[in-house]
Amino acid sequence: HELLKQFEGEWNAAMKFIVDPAQPPMESKGTQVSKVELGGFWLTSVFKGEMLGQPFEGRSTMGYSPMKKKFVGTWVDNFMPHLFTSEGDADAAGKVFTMTADGVDMSTGKPAKERWVMEFKDKDTQMMTFFGPGPDGKERKTGEILYTRKK
After folding, report:
1. d(CA 60, CA 22)
2. Most exposed of 32, 99, 115, 119 (fewest Cβ within 10 Å)?
3. What is residue 107's predicted lDDT score, i.e. its pLDDT?
4. Bridging pattern class, strands 96-104 and 9-17
5. pLDDT < 70 regions, the chain
6. pLDDT of res. 131
7. pLDDT at residue number 106
8. Where in the chain does DSSP place strands (E)?
9. CA-based Rg of the chain, rounded to a whole angstrom?
10. Cβ(29)–Cβ(16) under 8 Å?
11. First to last CA, the chain
12. What is d(CA 61, CA 85) in angstroms, rounded to the nearest whole number?
């Protein structure tokens, strides 16, 4: 659970999402407030920003499951009635977290596996990269969020 503490704080977020690979990424900004709470077991985060010209808000949890021996997480937002669940591992240095999420293919509305990679570049910079199935069924990058710690 100590690894979760590096996520704590207030963050600015610059988002780029690739809806159609033939088009430029959709860009927007937001903020995230994250803290370890609930007995030190859970990192909870509140995200606020804009998506497609509309207010966007989401909530996430992340913790370590001793039973699964994996990090586990959830994500919900105001854009879709889907609870994303994820699980994965951290690298040996505790700076790169790779999660597999049960998501939704936005082009078909059908269930899809996604891969989320959260990497700490330094204590004040993290990058979250999203990968999902492309039209050919092969994994493709679908987006990224660059987080910079508010000073």
Report:
1. 30
2. 119
3. 67
4. unpaired
5. 1, 106-107
6. 93
7. 67
8. 9-17, 26-37, 42-51, 54-65, 70-77, 84-90, 96-104, 111-122, 125-133, 139-149
9. 15
10. no
11. 24
12. 10
